[in-house]
Amino acid sequence: MKNEGFNKRQVVDKQGLNFRTVAKYWDMTPEENDQILNRERCRNLSLYEGVVTDWLKKHPDMSASQILDWLKEHYQVSVPERTARRFVEGVRKKYSIPKAKGQERQFATLKDPPMGQQMQVDLGVAYVFDFESRNYRKLFCVACVLSHSRYKWGKWYTRPADIQTASKCTGRLL
Fold first, then answer.
1. Interatomic CA distance for residues 43 and 109, integer angstroms
2. pLDDT at 39
3. Rounded to an integer, what distance in angstroms lies between the CA atom of residue 111 and that of residue 138?
4. Are residues 51 and 13 in the same domain?
5. 61 with 81, same domain?
6. How many CB atoms lie within 10 A of CB 71?
7. Which listed residue, of 5, 18, 99, 146, carries a Cα 20 to 30 Å from 138's Cα?
8. Residue 97 in contact with residue 57, Cβ under 8 Å?
């Protein structure tokens, strides 16, 4: 479109592109454009393909999160979990390494404990607006649910709950 006499703003309007994108490619030669468009992206983990392949061949039941943990431990890699999952999936396809199933988990029912002897404890975080400081504030919560009666109890804190805080909160129920 540049060779046809259009200016950058007209190209943006006609093609629906961002102005910065058009400006970036405007002064490039066609050969430079082809080089940029045809270059292959280098993935962050491609350097570790051999290591990951060896790990998967030795331990075909490994998950991507385990591999990411090992890469962080041995090579100080810092990538998102999703990147690791996609990379491991690609390596499995490329080298035909199917994921082997580990041992089946054994599930069994448990006898119901006496009333008041079992509960679920969860920790949470919430951002609330503080009218005094006119700013958002981070609050931490310890929430408990008794299994038999479904009685619910919660306590809010301004600092992260540690084990002592959680045990004090749950001790009130028992």
1. 46
2. 62
3. 40
4. no
5. yes
6. 20
7. 146
8. yes
**Residue 159 per-residue DSSP state:** S
What pLDDT sits at residue 40? 59
In a domain, 153, yes or no: yes
Q: In what order do the strands lie in the sheet with 119-130?
A: 119-130, 135-146, 152-157
Of 61, 94, 127, which residue is a domain's last?
94
Domain extent for 152: 119-171
Residue 124 lies in a domain: yes
Note whether residue 88 is domain-resident. yes
Give the pLDDT confidence score for residue 102 in this predicted structure.
66
Residue-level pLDDT at 95: 95
- Per-residue pLDDT tens over the stretch 21-78: 888 888 888 788 777 766 655 567 889 999 999 999 999 989 999 999 999 999 988 8
- 33 and 52 in a common domain: no
Which residues are CB-neighbours of 80 under 8 A, at least 6 positions away? none
Q: Rounded CA gap, 62 and 130, in Å? A: 46
Tokens, residue 62 = 């490994």
Look at residues 118, 120, 124 and name the one whose alpha carbon lies nearest to residue 142: 124
| Six-digit token string for 160 | 């992260």
- CA nearest neighbour of 89 among 64, 62, 66: 64
Q: How many domains does the chain have?
A: 3
